[in-house]
Specification:
Elements (H helix, E strand, L loop, with lengths): L1 H17 L7 E11 L14 E13 L2 E13 L2 E13 L1 H14 L32 E7 L2 E6 L18 H20 L6 E10 L10 E8 L7 E9 L2 E12 L10
Antiparallel strand pairs: 1-4, 1-7, 2-3, 3-4, 5-6, 6-8, 7-10, 8-9, 9-10
Length: 267
């Protein structure tokens, strides 16, 4: 997830530096397709690694001859080797246009113009190991349910989380939805196929953001998992992030099973 955040920051930097996006403009991310190319490049060594990102514009969105959006193809090189790629579509707009869009969208849901952060309610958070995490605070799913093939869970909106909410936002951030998608895919692989989440890693994540997620509405992550027909990974999870009857994000998460490391069984 760190590299996905790096790609997001590269996209914003590129827009400001090379595409003329003013510092006051607001960004909307439409979709992303992230894939790990060489997992060995991520192995932790005895000293810090060196990562370089190369970004290439593959599509431009213009309005009255002015660039207002891009699709970037970004490649991460770690120690000179291709480590991962991501294609990201996003756009930007003046703050006043953003405000009009946000108010119109919130009003259509019966919400006031200004957002509010609801008080936290008691939930039964999922175990970190069940969603591929170690730190309990980083397990952001709760109250899971399992119906036939689909697993669903509430997404915990913790606006005090140091990495998922490192700056103020008026909507549920895309990075939180990325992580909810990854975690619900892990949970689905375990619940539906009995796979060990301690040995599972995300290989690819495709996601499209359909609508803004609102803080006042319950955010539910859903996943249905199947074995990968192409053999690139172990399983593919079709995911949806919903509020009420509406999907705010949809996509697919590809998971792989790592080889057994016998030393993990030693105390």
């Amino acid at each position: 997830m760190l590299l996905i955040e790096v790609f997001r920051q590269v996209a914003i930097y590129y827009a400001h530096t090379f595409a003329g996006a003013d510092r006051s403009q607001k960004f909307i991310f439409g979709s992303a397709d992230f894939e790990i190319i060489d997992r060995e490049t991520f192995r932790i060594g005895t000293c810090p690694g060196h990562c370089t990102i190369i970004a290439e514009v593959v599509n431009e969105k213009t309005r009255d001859g002015v660039v207002t959006g891009l699709t970037l193809e970004m490649t991460a090189y770690i120690e000179g080797k291709v480590a991962a790629r991501e294609a990201m579509a996003y756009q930007w707009m003046p703050a006043e246009v953003w405000t009009r869009i946000r108010c119109r969208g919130r009003n259509s849901l019966g919400l006031p113009d200004m957002h509010e952060i609801p008080n936290a309610t008691p939930v039964a958070r999922m175990r970190p190991g069940a969603v591929g995490r170690h730190n309990p605070r980083n397990a952001i799913l709760a109250n899971p349910t399992f119906d036939t093939a689909e697993i669903s869970a509430v997404t915990v909106i913790d606006t005090n989380h140091p990495s998922l909410f490192d700056h103020a936002l008026d909507h549920v951030p895309g990075m939180l939805q990325f992580e909810a998608a990854r975690q619900i895919a892990m949970a689905a692989a375990n619940a539906s196929l009995g796979l060990d989440t301690n040995r599972m890693v995300m290989h690819q994540l495709e996601i499209s953001f359909e609508k803004f997620g609102e803080f006042e509405l319950e955010t539910i992550a859903h996943a249905v998992v199947e074995t990968d027909p192409d053999g690139k990974g172990a399983v593919i999870a079709a995911i949806r992030i919903t509020q009420g009857d509406e999907a705010i994000a949809t996509g697919r998460v590809h998971l792989q099973v790592m080889p057994v490391d016998i030393w993990t069984m030693v105390q």
